[in-house]
């Protein structure tokens, strides 16, 4: 019985989400190794599938965001850098590297995905 309960508490992170190899995505923290930039075609093909995903699941799929920002009306942005930038050497410095931001609603669902330089 104890074994069953301990197994129920385990959560295996997926290796893919749509066409995106999220295991590779997660391995490139901050986009500092250039792996995320090579995954952009697959990311774009899977982009719409992220809408409606709960924020807890987003972290499980893509890993911890590089930047977590609070927006107005209890909304948040989860930002993932796509390329190497100043943030790779000094996380406290604002980076202008290409990034993708997931806007998360007050109820914790992804509502919008945007690309920009730096943070939104």
User: Main β-sheet, in a few words?
Assistant: 4 strands, antiparallel
Radius of gyration: 15 Å
Count of domain modules: 1
* CATH fold call: Beta-lactamase Inhibitory Protein, Chain:B, domain 1
Can you walk me through this structure?
By secondary structure, the protein is an alpha+beta fold. The protein has one domain (12-117): Beta-lactamase Inhibitory Protein, Chain:B, domain 1. Helices cover 27% and strands 24% of the residues. The protein is built from five helices and six strands. The protein has helices at residues 2-8, 22-27, 35-38, 40-46, 55-62, and strands at residues 16-17, 20-21, 67-70, 76-81, 98-104, 110-117. It has a four-stranded antiparallel sheet with strand order 3-4-5-6, with no helix packed on it. Strands 1-2 form a two-stranded antiparallel ribbon. Residues 1-11 have low confidence and may be disordered.
What's the structural blueprint in terms of helices and strands?
Blueprint: H1 2-8, E1 16-17, E2 20-21, H2 22-27, H3 35-38, H4 40-46, H5 55-62, E3 67-70, E4 76-81, E5 98-104, E6 110-117
Antiparallel strand pairs: 1-2, 3-4, 4-5, 5-6
């Amino acid at each position: 019985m104890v074994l069953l309960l301990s197994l129920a508490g385990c959560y295996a992170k997926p290796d893919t989400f749509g066409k995106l190899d999220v295991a590779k995505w997660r391995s490139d923290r901050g986009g500092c190794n250039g792996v995320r930039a090579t995954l952009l075609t697959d990311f774009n093909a899977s982009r719409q599938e992220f809408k409606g995903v709960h924020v807890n699941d987003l972290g499980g799929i893509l890993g911890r965001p590089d930047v977590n920002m609070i927006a107005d009306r209890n909304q948040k942005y989860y930002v993932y850098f796509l390329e190497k930038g100043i943030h790779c050497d000094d996380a406290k410095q604002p980076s202008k590297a290409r990034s993708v931001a997931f806007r998360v609603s007050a109820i914790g669902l992804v509502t919008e995905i945007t690309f920009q330089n730096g943070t939104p």
